[in-house]
Structures are given as C-alpha cells and as structure tokens.
Amino acid sequence: LPPSAAANLRPGAEQKVVFITARVHPGETPSSFVCQGIIDFLVSHHPIAKVLRDHLVFKIAPMLNPDGVYLGNYRCSLMGFDLNRHWANPSPWAHPTLHGVKQLIIDMYNNPKINLEFYIDIHAHSTMMNGFMYGNIFEDEERFQRQAVFPKLLCQNAEDFSYSSTSFNRDAVKAGTGRRFLGGLLNDTSYCYTLEVSFYSYILGGPTSAVPYTEEAYMKLGRNVARTFLDYYRLNSLVERPLGTTPKTR
Where do the Peptidase M14 domain residues begin and end (predicted)? Predict the structure, then answer.
C-alpha cells in the first residue's frame, strides 16, 4: 500500500467493518437509490467521507437479487425464492448471492483482525412513511439499549428518518432475514438492522405535510446514513474544516 493509505488498511491492522446490503427484494427500487447515496458519499472528496474511510472499512453488496431485478420480479429470485427468508441455510445453487455474502460475513467474523460492527440491509416499505429501522430484541438490557444509539443519531441527522417508527422485534416470520439471522450469529458488539424507506413520502411537521420522495431525497438519506457513523464513532473532531468557515469577530 502507498504511504498515504489509511492506517486501518495496513497489513495486520484491526479493521472495523460496516457491511451494507440492498435490493434483496427486486421491486424495492428506493433501496438502490439509498445505497447509491451511501456509495457516492463514501467515495467523494467530502472531509467527512475521508475521515470515515480512514477509520472504517465499508463492504457493500448493492444488489443481492440481480436475477430478480433483471426479470422485473417484485419480491422473488429467478427460481421463485424470497431470498430474505433463506439466510439460515442458503444453497450455493438456489441462492448463490446470499450464499456468497453470508460466507464472506462469516469469514470476517472468524477473522481475529476484523471487528464486524454493523450489518445494515436496505429495503423499501409500501405502506409506511419516512425512513425507519428494524432491530433485534436481546435479553441483555444493556445490549438492547446500545442497539438504539445508531437509529437515534440517524434521526438527528436525517429529517425524513423516524425513530418513533423504528421498532425492535423477533417476529417468527422474519427469522430467515439477514437482520435476524446475523443478529443471532454475531457477538454482542455487532449491530444488525433493516433500514426501511417509504415508497412514496415522508412527513415533515404535522400529519398533513407529506413530502413525496424523489431519487435525490433517497440518495440524501443514504448520505445521512453514512454521515451518522461519524457521530457514532465520535470522529467529528477529525474532520478538516474548510477555510473561511469561522465567523469573523468584530
């Protein structure tokens, strides 16, 4: 690696990994725009993006169901499977993308040099407004409370993200999802979420002030997701401030 390479990428360095996946349900196109916003921000010249790249490793699988997307399916894969119900035992033949991503996650989890700290799976919701998250339920109260920190911070950064719509559950129907399966597999320093965003609008102010989502608004939510890691890891002091931003004294 060149001398300017981030310290977290040097051989032998401990890596904090954020793993993000999207579009496991082909019809949920907003998830792709949110993921695009995350990617575009992280590879940009923005001072916050530079700090994030220096301290975290982002692994992103932007389309878990490319066959279903190509075919125009709404929810299932080429072979008719809802891939988000097969995380527990994905087949390399029937669910190849899931199998490959799960194996990569397990390999990272078993690597002592890697801390897999976040897993976020991006979806779109057809009936609820705003962006919100699903998290897991744990018997350990402290772990449960720590899990609420990231969505609370995201709520402060994104006007269209709703913490009141965010919920933590262990619904049996969702047992095969990425969030549920990995939440049970990974250790108590890892946080697994489903990030949902409305297909149609978000609410600002009162209940009658619904704002239609646009592609740009979805990508802005993605940018705000990325920025929230700066707050979560308390890296704000490392961001280089552009010259001329300090107010002149009289």
Answer: 1-233
